[in-house]
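To the wet lab folks,

You asked to see what we're planning to order before we commit. Fair enough. Below is the target structure as tokens, and below that is the sequence we designed to fit it. If anything looks off to you, flag it before the synthesis order goes out.
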């Protein structure tokens, strides 16, 4: 199994902290967010990792090559990182990933090893990590159908109808990845370069079965704002990270 980490963004919402440091290299509990993620991937037996980089890319590449020299790492550059979003970034790695099952994650998610272990060992081939909770406008939300299946995903869903938040870590099957890249291509050609990749998932949910793993019992957070970072500093002290 392969992995893709999306780490091209500028992270304006964390300025001035991210003026000179990419968000994925912010340290929590003595190591960077990216190190937490890579250590989890390696523990789950995943050593083939594709990084989509843009902002401060030289810093990220050097960090990975220095700290993880034995990792089978590949770097794809999003040169348009200022004006694009994760849909555009993910689409750039189609040739490297299509026809493969892979783990997909945003480069700003803190989670313990247990989360990835659950995704990898699950019998479901396409699975999103979801925190079941009441959501606001900012979160990427999901709506649950029958038998743990997801029937809708996006930021603009009616909040009262939503199960919770997709936290930005997923396991995607070979069949789903092929459908996803077709949907991403259509989205971008239609002008969706600044969309999140979840906008390409929603249209294919009627044809591809996507399930969710409830990770509400785990200390997980996607870090977008300063308040998220402060919460992450507390979560990383959990026994789950020891």
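Sequence we intend to order:
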């Amino acid at each position: 199994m392969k992995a893709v980490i999306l780490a091209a963004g500028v992270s304006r919402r964390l300025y001035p902290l991210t003026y000179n440091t990419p968000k994925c290299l912010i340290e929590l509990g003595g190591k960077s967010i990216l190190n937490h993620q890579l250590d989890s991937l390696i523990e789950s037996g995943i050593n083939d990792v594709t990084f989509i980089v843009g902002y401060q890319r030289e810093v990220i590449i050097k960090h990975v090559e220095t700290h993880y020299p034995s990792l089978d790492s590949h770097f794809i550059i999003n040169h348009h990182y200022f004006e694009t979003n994760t849909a555009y970034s993910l689409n750039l790695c189609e040739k490297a990933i299509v026809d493969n099952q892979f783990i997909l994650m945003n480069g700003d998610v803190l989670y313990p090893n247990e989360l990835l272990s659950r995704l990898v060992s699950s019998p479901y081939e396409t699975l999103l990590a979801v925190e079941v909770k009441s959501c606001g406008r900012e979160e990427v939300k999901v709506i649950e159908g029958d038998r743990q299946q997801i029937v809708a995903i996006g930021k603009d869903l009616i909040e009262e109808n939503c199960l919770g938040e997709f936290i930005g870590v997923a396991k995607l099957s070979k069949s789903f990845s092929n459908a996803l890249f077709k949907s991403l291509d259509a989205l971008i050609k239609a002008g969706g370069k600044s969309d999140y990749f979840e906008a390409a998932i929603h249209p294919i949910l009627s044809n591809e079965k996507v399930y969710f793993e409830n990770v509400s019992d785990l200390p997980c957070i996607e870090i977008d704002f300063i308040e998220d970072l402060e919460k992450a500093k507390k979560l990383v002290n959990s026994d789950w990270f020891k």
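Structural context that might help your review: The chain has eight helices and 13 strands. The two ends are 26 Å apart (CA to CA).

Thanks,
Computational group
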